[in-house]
Specification:
seven-stranded mixed β-sheet, 7 strands, 17% strand
Length: 264
């Protein structure tokens, strides 16, 4: 009987050993799974915090003046990176980027045209064309970007052929940006504006696009063409009049509502 018990114990030992290995493996898999789940949870939380921070900065930029925005980023330049990271994430959901259309427009025209990119962001426009481009924004993470309030650039009067505002008419004093563009543009120079479409939808609180265009024309431009075909943004093409009226009447600028992103 003792021998048989010994034999039975020996026979069961490999079987029990295999079960222990499986149990250990299962425990390791459970720990690994929990670790991955925890990591995924933390990543989601970080993304939510980052997204919330972006929305806060975005709202700030739409509801303050350009000089206030400049001071805001001067106090903490890292906020600019947070903003542009969130901005790029939002743009990734757009089927088409307005900056690419403007790049194509410039490539279809003479490379000798001098360009001013108001609110250039990562200076993508300058990197993709042969033109001389002056890139302006509130913070510079690139040596080619000039830090300034867009209502007061260091450019000389009548020195630019093309002024670009690509999703950058954000401040409450956006009209002063357009006045600055008018100052630096040469006679017959181009003003290209790309803006979020909802900002020009009167049915949802946006500005009347015709009133907006008329205001710019009173500044000393003619509307050459407009494109409302894209569901995300509008494109407006103006040209500075060759002869300017020395007496410009006071312009009634329509309010452009803030473009506030919803939490995804």
């Amino acid at each position: 009987m003792e021998v048989k018990k010994g034999i039975d114990r020996k026979r069961r030992t490999p079987h029990n050993g295999e079960s222990q290995t499986k149990k250990k493996r299962r425990k390791l898999e459970e720990v690994d799974g929990k670790s991955k789940s925890s990591s995924s949870f933390l990543d989601k939380m970080r993304a939510r915090l980052s997204g919330g921070h972006f929305r806060m900065i975005n709202e700030k930029l739409y509801t303050c003046t350009g000089s206030e925005a400049l001071s805001y980023f001067e106090e903490d330049p890292s906020l600019f990176k947070v903003y542009h990271t969130g901005y790029q994430e939002q743009m990734s959901h757009w089927p088409q980027q307005p900056v690419n259309i403007i790049i194509k427009w410039l490539k279809d025209h003479s490379p000798s045209l001098i360009v001013a990119d108001f609110g250039c962001g990562d200076a993508r426009l300058a990197r993709n064309v042969k033109n001389k481009v002056f890139s302006f924004d509130l913070v510079s993470n690139d040596p080619s970007v000039i830090v300034c309030d867009m209502s007061n650039t260091p450019l000389k009067s009548s020195s630019i052929d093309v002024a670009v505002f690509c999703l950058s008419l954000m401040g409450t004093n956006f009209s002063s940006y357009l006045q600055e563009a008018h100052r630096v543009l040469k006679p017959c120079g181009w003003l290209l504006i790309a803006e979020v479409k909802s900002r020009f939808d009167p049915n949802t609180g946006g500005a009347d696009p015709n009133k907006f265009s008329k205001a710019i024309c009173k500044l000393g431009f003619t509307l050459e063409s407009k494109d409302f075909s894209n569901k995300m943004f509008v494109l407006l093409y103006f040209k500075k009049k060759e002869k300017q009226n020395s007496k410009v009447k006071e312009i009634d600028w329509p309010e452009l509502k803030p473009c506030l992103y919803k939490r995804r």
